[in-house]
């Protein structure tokens, strides 16, 4: 399965993803393709909507201390729901759909989610630190929300100007 990142300002990123109801080979193929694609594109998380599949599915694979992303640490999270949240933290986030742009975003420091795995089994996960941040970031994608939506009005205007300039430069270099 060939995947491609949907980049801002593509309107598909604003669409709300649909609940996964069928846990079949088609879903497994998508999940199997998303993980290596995420690694190849230097991501730690990827929502299905970012590769043009508007379903409530995401993958996360945090790097270890050496920066390695091991397959056994892969999380496949389908139909996630936050059931509790606590604390607050600020983290400099980036996004594969908003390339080359990083900004401080406030998130909950600790969350608990209920979700389903690729077989449809219900699971619960307690997450804190970077894992909690990554889950919240990817879950925002499922709602059509980008990390830049969390910026102040002034910072968002500055982002829009910087991003347009960067896009022009990227087009010139191609």
TrEMBL record:
One of its GO terms (molecular function) is peptide deformylase activity. Keywords: Hydrolase, Iron, Metal-binding, Protein biosynthesis. The active site is at residue 138. Binds 1 Fe(2+) ion. Its EC number is 3.5.1.88. One of its GO terms (biological process) is translation. InterPro entries: Peptide_deformylase (IPR023635), Peptide_deformylase_sf (IPR036821). Its cofactor is Fe(2+). Fe cation binds at residues 95, 137, 141. It comes from the Bacteria. It catalyses: N-terminal N-formyl-L-methionyl-[peptide] + H2O = N-terminal L-methionyl-[peptide] + formate. Belongs to the polypeptide deformylase family. HAMAP family: Pep_deformylase. Removes the formyl group from the N-terminal Met of newly synthesized proteins. Requires at least a dipeptide for an efficient rate of reaction. N-terminal L-methionine is a prerequisite for activity but the enzyme has broad specificity at other positions. This is Peptide deformylase. It comes from Sulfurimonas paralvinellae.
């Amino acid at each position: 399965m060939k995947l491609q990142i949907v980049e801002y300002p593509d309107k598909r990123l604003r669409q709300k993803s649909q609940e996964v109801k069928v846990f079949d080979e088609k879903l497994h193929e998508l999940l199997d393709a998303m993980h290596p694609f995420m690694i190849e594109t230097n991501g730690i998380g990827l929502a299905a909507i970012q590769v043009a599949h508007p379903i409530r599915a995401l993958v996360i694979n945090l790097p270890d201390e050496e920066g390695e992303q091991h397959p056994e640490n892969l999380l496949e999270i389908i139909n996630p729901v936050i059931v509790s949240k606590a604390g607050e933290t600020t983290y400099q986030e980036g996004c594969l759909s908003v390339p080359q742009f990083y900004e401080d975003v406030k998130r909950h420091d600790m969350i608990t989610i209920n979700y389903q795995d690729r077989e449809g089994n219900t699971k619960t996960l307690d997450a804190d630190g970077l894992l909690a941040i990554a889950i919240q970031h990817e879950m925002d994608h499922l709602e059509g929300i980008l990390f830049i939506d969390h910026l102040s009005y002034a910072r968002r205007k500055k982002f829009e100007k910087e991003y347009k300039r960067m896009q022009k430069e990227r087009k010139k270099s191609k």
